[in-house]
Design goal:
Blueprint (H helix, E strand, L loop, with lengths): L8 H13 L10 E5 L5 E6 L30 H7 L10 E6 L3 H10 L3 E6 L6 H12 L3 E4 L16
Parallel strand pairs: 3-4, 4-5
Antiparallel strand pairs: 1-2, 1-3
Helix pairs in contact: 3-4
């Protein structure tokens, strides 16, 4: 008899996005993304961080201060990183899983890449003007928006496979 405590596809892909977020060196916000095709195959992943070749020791991680003294003009968001990391695969019709609802800049990239569904966990910035702009663009472009609802609180990973 097969086990019945396995995770759903949505939980699996969101778990991959959350695991990717663990690569982020951002001290305050770690976000990951996972892009999946219609056959439930992972096409790409990404997390928030500085562009390739830009040392995370040479750029600021601050959230407040003058614009160029904060992380905001430099950090590539998880969604955009996943789109750029896909290495030329066709993303038309794909789904993207993200822990945090995409910002307006990532929404533009999501739309342009042909992704047709955004699955997210949190919409904590949902009332901000930039997130409102994001939602407006995504809805206008016909991108489905779905907040992941699950009874599962955590997925535990262990490197101790022999136990």
């Amino acid at each position: 008899m097969k086990r019945n405590e396995y995770i759903s596809w949505d939980e699996y892909f969101m778990g991959v996005a959350l695991l990717a977020a663990q690569r982020s060196k951002d001290p305050s916000t770690q976000v990951g993304a996972c892009i999946v095709d219609e056959f439930d195959r992972i096409l790409s992943t990404g997390y928030n961080g500085f562009p390739y070749g830009c040392s995370d020791d040479e750029f600021p991680w601050a959230r407040e201060g003058k614009d160029t003294e904060t992380k905001y003009p430099f950090v590539v968001h998880a969604e955009l990183n996943a789109i750029l990391n896909n290495r030329g695969k066709n993303l038309a019709g794909a789904r993207i899983y993200v822990a945090l609802f995409p910002c307006n800049e990532c929404a533009k990239a999501i739309i342009q890449s042909g992704i047709k569904e955004v699955v997210y966990l949190s919409d904590k910035y949902g009332e901000t003007p930039m997130t409102q702009a994001s939602k407006r663009m995504l809805k206008s472009a016909g991108v489905a928006l779905r907040q992941l609802k699950t009874d599962r609180k955590e997925i535990t990973l262990s490197f101790e496979v022999d136990k």
